[in-house]
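Sharing a chain and its predicted structure for anyone who wants a worked example. Both blocks are below, sequence first, tokens second.
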Amino acid sequence: MKKLFALILIVAAAGCQVEQEEQFMLSLPPDEAPIRREYPTVNLPLGLRQRNWVGDRGEGSCVHASMVMLFRWQGFPAMADWWRNNNANGEWADDLAVKFKNAKVRFAQTTTADESFLQWACDTRRGAGVTVMGGRHMVCLVHLDDRWAGILDNNNIEAISWYPRETFLAEWRASHGWAVTPIYWPAPPLPQ
């Protein structure tokens, strides 16, 4: 319970800001990492990660930064660049869906905290943008297994943050349960 309270305090103090504040407790991947499976499942190289930026309305662009990273991971760098240059500021599910449709981007999402969507997004190595901090911020879910969730935060792209699965799911559900991913071609898994 103390860990969950500490996570909530850390998350509540942040937001979809662009400052370089320490926003999540960072750690190395859990010792229980399966040897035969790439860890995290969506293992985006540092050079392809997108830092959050401030839009013309003075708002952070965390949803768009998350989508840029997912486009890059899924083998669609031209769309990632176009998206970065043409979208900014805060975003909601309905508005993002319109922008995706106008840009002819295939996507899938849940706005009802459907946990199976998260599992599908990670099992297919697509990853997903997920809401946290009461819905005020979006990050990339880059790993989800029976015990752990790996988060790549666009406010701190240097490291993956690891949380117990149920701790992460509780935070996501309390943050409106929105998750979204483009549907392109994720990287193939490492040989087993």
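Comments welcome. The chain has a mean pLDDT of 85.
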